[in-house]
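Input chain follows. Return structure tokens only.
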Amino acid sequence: MILRNRGERVDSKRRRKIRKGITPERVEKRIDELKAVDQIRLHDVFKDEDVHRLCDELHIEFRERCFTPATALGLFVSQVLSRDDACSTVVTKLNCERKRRGLPPVCEDASAYCKARAKLPVKLIDTLSKRVMQIARDNTPDPWKWKGRNVYLVDGLVLRAPDTAANQEAYPQPSSQEEGLGFPQVRVVVTISLATGCILHYNTGRVEGKRTGEVTLFREKHADFATGDVVVSDSNLESFHDAVLLKRRGVDMVSCINGSRKSPFKNRATKNIEDKIVTLKKPKFDKKRFTRKQWEALPDSIRYRVIRYRVAGRKTEITIVTTLLDRRRFSARDIANLYGLRWDVEVDIRSYKSSMGMCDLRCQTPDNLDREIAVAVLGYNLVRLLMNDTAAVLEVHPREISFSHARDTWRSFHDELETTNDLTWMILSAASRLVRDRPGREEPRAIKRRNMTKYPKLDAPRPSRARRMAPRSKGPPANHLTIP
């Protein structure tokens, strides 16, 4: 695997050689070489006709207007990749494009675009997103994989939504917050490829209540994995139940040991990596965790491999568990280094929440919130596909390409993918920023910037919120005068 572990210094000679090779002539030559073996992923990205053909396959009816599903979806993707753009701004940009093409302008009122956007089925968006993910997975070279296997990183995040009555009902705020002082929150669990950076699948739910936790949301997506895949997660997703379900599908897992589980190591950790294979017995029946049928289907025990080590320069010890039992093929150090790469999913989530601005959602209804999240996943995967092609041209790992810079490149050039020259310009722009050169970083989890706002925190609901949340009367206003 050509991806170096986090904290390791990159090869400066290799980086200088790569930067010298970023010239139009060399990039165009390399693109032609990849085209000859059908390894340019962006050429397989869907066009308007493909979107409308998929609408027919999914039995989605639409009328041939200015804002067709393909047009509305394209504008929606550009909007989530540029969070500063309001709906009216997007329509203005569409008119600029129509002017270049010699077409008549559409009305600058964004209501038609908003209505077309609200009609986009989430199923259509998710299907297109999975196709992009499949393009990336089918074209993943072995040097990007871990020992020839696809590795997927799993983690959860929480997004805030506008404080409307509909959003509060579908995605209520945490019960620890007083009414009127919190925002609706959406829990999202994502599974991201370590090799390509694309999101394999995602699932959403409430932040509180039955069957809304990260484990449940992740378990509903087990069917998306293929035999030979490896899942890497934190301790929250480590359980006997999930280890068995994944193993039945031929999928292995690597996780930090759950806090409720006892470690087989008695003494304190040393500088050496410790490795044990233990037998884990089936947990007792608990109706809060699984049904009687699910519990009876579990085996009496499974074999677990437990690895403990200490990170250089730190006092804390790390204990991880895995179903990769073959010590000859998967050494303890290899598995420890793989778990160290789990932090990449935190960086990916930061790209989704901060770089793309998805931390605070904008839509006012639950259905549109689901669309906004789905379109953001599609836009994220499209940017990752560009990063994959850029990495293939430069012969580096996709995670050495800057996501934020690739996103800016996609926003500027995504309409120009017709010729090799168009693709050369796009890749030259995305390749100008390489990352992952931060050796030996160990920073405290604290911020330097102080909150200098002069306004106090809200401790009571705003008066305007009471008016917004109040049910609308069907009759005339109280001050309405009826003239005979």
